[in-house]
Automatic annotation (TrEMBL), chain A:
UniProt protein name: Ion-translocating oxidoreductase complex subunit D
Cofactor(s) for this UniProt protein: FMN
Major localisation: membrane
Keyword RNA-binding: no
Membrane topology of the entry: Multi-pass membrane protein
EC top class named in words: translocase
PANTHER family xrefs: ELECTRON TRANSPORT COMPLEX PROTEIN RNFD (PTHR30578), ION-TRANSLOCATING OXIDOREDUCTASE COMPLEX SUBUNIT D (PTHR30578:SF0)
Organism in which the protein naturally occurs: Peptoniphilus equinus
Record EC number: 7.-.-.-
Transmembrane regions: 46-67, 79-97, 206-227, 234-253, 259-278
Classification via InterPro entries: NqrB/RnfD, RnfD_bac
Matches recorded under NCBIfam families: rnfD
UniProtKB/TrEMBL annotation, chain B:
Gene3D superfamilies: 3.30.70.20, NADH-ubiquinone oxidoreductase 51kDa subunit
Name assigned to this protein: Ion-translocating oxidoreductase complex subunit C
Binding site for [4Fe-4S] cluster 1: 369, 372, 375, 418
Annotated signal peptide: none
Name of the gene: rsxC
Classification via InterPro entries: 4Fe4S_Fe-S-bd, 4Fe4S_Fe_S_CS, Ion_transpt_RnfC/RsxC, Nuo51_FMN-bd, Nuo51_FMN-bd_sf, RnfC_N, Soluble_ligand-bd
EC number: 7.-.-.-
KW Membrane (keyword) present: yes
PANTHER family: ION-TRANSLOCATING OXIDOREDUCTASE COMPLEX SUBUNIT C (PTHR43034:SF2)
Binding site for [4Fe-4S] cluster 2: 379, 408, 411, 414
Length: 338, 444
């Protein structure tokens, strides 16, 4: 305890500076709540994508925790894996992988996120970018094909083989049989008639990466975090609203908006990645600017860029802007200045 | 009745822990054998003793005074003999001269000098009287009352602060229940000075019985019809004078200002009761009600205690300490000071003595800031404690000033809410002090 001192000449009583009581919140409890919030979506992904999803989550969590442990040991820093933040990062990285992703890619992404993005910048709270987003972008840049090789839950259920190593060869040979176009891909291509039902989109009965599929299960978790006051709905709500508005301005027909909102990781990104404490602005004004920025960039990428989706790039870009936003939105003290 | 009033920026709802002592009626502490009367019991210049070793003093007699305007007289709380005058620590950690009086147990009081026609006198006639009677803000800060009576700006709103927003403390709650008419009479006198149309008694909603009782007495007393009870949201720091001024009359005090600057006279219920006793009964301020509480105390209580009583006597009367008591705090848990010497005496501003257990304190080591923004969201001063914390750790005082660290009201909320258990409040306080020192250096 840095703020305590014993003054043996006067008495042996414990002495500390005010305040003398603390709330019972701890970093570990917050992270535990986030993990609890992710459980429904984890269960859903195993239901939809089978054991491969479970395996990937296990690999990501294990590699994150291990990477953090080894790095902190090697650097002779205090080992902080007990705060559970690496577990959260691991789950989020897995959520950003397609169920067909090979385990080594998952392990690489996890180690990269923890060591390069988190620990090299000073560890918990100091990362300039959400580590899971960083991992996704790096994997995407390195193995784009493996990352977009989506299978739909149907294919998993029908015993459609999960092509892991030979994805490229197989999918190019019989594209329709294995590769699964995401709803956003269909929107982009204008093949509206192939869109799944909105019900399937909401429950997660669609193709995509492990964690972004079930909007409902993710929202249940988000609601839990909001009720527990771990998360404020400010960033996600402003983010999603901005995305919707800009999409409409950019010419997306209003009836397809729900597909945009439910698909392509917007819910996962808005609620669980953009809200990352360390890489989002610290006060309310800054959070609003940040969320609007995320929304605009997401919508612009989705409508104007060649990529079908833009959530991770939007968040990454705004993460980089966070220090600037913080500086521009510095808090002004209470009371009218004299 | 207006209800649910509050201030807008920051604040926090916390466990109140008031149940430990709130239903225990005020008891008088048995006579202490020796009292140590501190010469510094308020903000401003300390007093100089007016008695010497061997003198016999009467209860209520002046034993210390000062010519400085921001200062208030100090009185004997017992009758007896002056044993010595020595420097010692008060319970709230000031180091000053104390007049040590051996109590003869007779409680021989000096002749009271009340003001009989107080209803018709202007406020100017009370200033000197109030200083001589030793009246200071009893809510914690201890600002001499007479210095508040007249403002630069004409004062046209009058609020009595019965919020009592710190956890554990129930002394104000008890006096509002047990001394209702006296407090309202005190408010009535203030209302004569400032706002004869409507003057306010502000109470937090967690004390519905006190609100009810106040309303009953007002309804039953035609003389009080210009007094109004307002209930405020239960939220710390509702009882801070600036926040209460905002909550009740919507006036926001400018930075570095006091409520007097926006025409608001605001003082604590305990002070109001003491003011009543001085004006109507002619009694100087030498005793007060305090709360003894916390999981570390055997029998939590509200006690009427003479100023200068050692902490040990008070704790003993409350059944002593439990084994789990880790720290003794003088005042509330959010802003109080650690007591390190059990012989140190309480002062007029001591609102409570708390013996806290480790479990209540949630003692934990500091870990890195996770930028959760709780400290920023809850800071009533609307500043950024975590950035100030990292700036002062790098000794960057200039940046601290840019971040308005000097506007910290020292409420302790940032430390309280931080999940990483960072010692934010003390570091912002340090930044505040460094900024002041730099400003002073720049002047010279
Ligand atoms: S102690 Fe100061 S910095 Fe901390 S919350 Fe209170 S006013 Fe803000
Ligand atoms: S409350 Fe603590 S952990 Fe959260 S931002 Fe403030 S200093 Fe950091």
């Amino acid at each position: 305890m840095d703020n305590t001192k014993q003054n043996p000449t006067v008495s042996e009583r414990f002495v500390s500076l005010a305040p003398h009581v603390r709330s019972n919140d701890t970093t570990q409890k917050i992270m535990r709540d986030v993990i609890i919030a992710l459980v429904p979506a984890m269960a859903g992904s195993i239901y939809f994508f089978g054991m491969n999803a479970a395996m990937l989550m296990a690999v990501c969590v294990a590699s994150c925790v291990l990477a953090e442990f080894i790095f902190q040991k090697a650097m002779k820093k205090e080992v902080r894996i007990g705060d559970l933040s690496a577990v959260v990062t691991g789950i989020l990285i897995a959520f950003n992988l397609p169920a067909t992703a090979p385990w080594w890619m998952a392990a690489f992404g996890s180690a990269f996120a923890i060591i390069v993005i988190k620990e090299c910048f000073g560890g918990i709270g100091s990362n300039f970018m959400n580590p899971a987003i960083g991992a996704r972008i790096v994997i995407m840049a390195s193995w784009a094909k493996l990352m977009t090789d989506y299978v739909s839950p149907e294919m998993v259920k029908n015993g459609g083989q999960l092509v892991v190593n030979d994805a490229w060869a197989v999918s190019s040979a019989s594209a329709d049989a294995v590769a699964y176009a995401t709803p956003l891909g269909m929107l982009k291509a204008g093949t509206y008639e192939q869109l799944p039902s909105l019900m399937d989109m909401a429950t997660g009965n669609i193709g995509g990466v492990i964690g972004e599929t079930s909007a409902i299960l993710l929202l249940i978790g988000a609601l839990y975090l909001i009720v527990r006051k771990v998360m404020s709905p400010l960033i996600p709500v402003v983010y999603i609203a901005t995305t919707a508005v800009v999409l409409v301005i950019a010419g997306v027909p209003v009836e397809y908006l729900p597909y945009h909102i439910l698909g392509g990781g917007l819910i996962l990104g808005a609620f669980f990645m953009a809200t990352d404490y360390a890489s989002s602005p610290i006060n309310v004004k800054g959070k609003i600017i940040f969320a609007i920025g995320c929304g605009v960039v997401t919508a612009v990428i989705r409508t104007k860029a060649s990529l079908p989706e833009g959530v991770s790039y939007a968040i990454a870009l705004m993460n980089v802007c966070t220090p600037l936003i913080d500086r521009l939105t510095r808090t002004e003290a209470y009371g009218e200045a004299k | 009745m207006s209800s649910n009033l509050t201030f807008k920026v920051g604040g926090v709802h916390m466990d109140e822990h008031k149940g430990l002592s709130e239903s225990s009626p005020i008891q008088r502490l048995p006579e202490p054998k020796v009292v140590y009367i501190p010469m510094s019991q308020h903000i401003g210049a300390p007093c100089t003793p007016t008695v010497q070793k061997g003198d016999r003093v009467l209860m209520g007699q002046t034993v210390g005074t000062s010519d400085a305007f921001i200062s208030s007289d100090v009185h004997a709380s017992v009758s007896g003999t002056v044993l010595e005058i020595k420097k010692m620590y008060t319970a709230d950690g000031r180091f000053c001269d104390c007049v040590v009086i051996e109590n003869d147990g007779m409680n021989e009081a000096q002749t009271p000098n009340p003001i009989s026609n107080y209803d018709s006198l202007p406020v100017d006639d009370f200033v000197d009287f109030t200083k001589k009677m030793g009246l200071v803000g009893m809510g914690g800060a201890g600002f001499p009352l007479h210095a508040k009576l007249k403002g630069q700006v004409p004062l046209d709103e009058c609020i009595i602060n019965g919020a009592e927003c710190e956890p554990y403390l129930t002394c104000d709650h008890r006096i509002m229940l047990e001394k209702t008419a006296e407090i309202l009479e005190g408010l009535k006198i203030f209302a004569n000075f400032y706002n004869p149309n409507v003057s306010y008694m502000a109470i937090e909603e967690n004390k519905p019985d006190a609100i009810k009782r106040m309303n009953e007495v007002i309804a039953a007393t035609p003389r009080f019809k210009n007094l109004k009870v307002v209930s405020c949201q239960t939220k710390y720091p509702q009882g801070d004078s600036k926040r209460l001024s905002e909550a009740v009359v919507g006036r926001i005090v400018p930075q570095n200002g006091v409520t007097n600057d926006v025409g608001v006279f605001l003082t604590n219920v305990g002070t109001t009761l003491a003011f009543y006793e001085a004006v109507v009964e002619g009694k100087s301020s030498y005793e007060r009600v305090i709360t003894v509480s916390g999981a570390g105390i055997k029998e939590p209580k509200n006690l009427l205690v003479k100023v200068g009583t050692p902490v040990q006597d008070i704790i003993d009367f409350a059944g002593g300490l439990n084994d789990n008591a880790v720290e003794i705090v003088c005042g509330g848990p959010m802003t109080g000071k650690s007591v390190f010497d059990m012989q140190s005496p309480i002062t007029k501003t001591t609102s409570g003595l708390l013996a806290l257990s480790a479990e209540e304190m949630q003692l934990e080591d500091e870990s890195p800031c996770i930028r959760c923004s709780r400290c920023v969201d809850h800071c009533p001063a609307h500043i950024n404690p975590t950035t100030i914390n990292s700036a002062i750790l790098k000794e960057d005082v200039e940046y601290c000033a840019e971040l308005h660290a000097d506007q910290c009201m020292e409420c302790g909320i940032c430390s309280f809410v931080c999940p990483a258990k960072r010692t934010l409040a003390p570091s912002v306080k340090l930044a505040k002090r460094e900024i002041k020192m730099q400003a002073m250096k720049a002047k010279n």
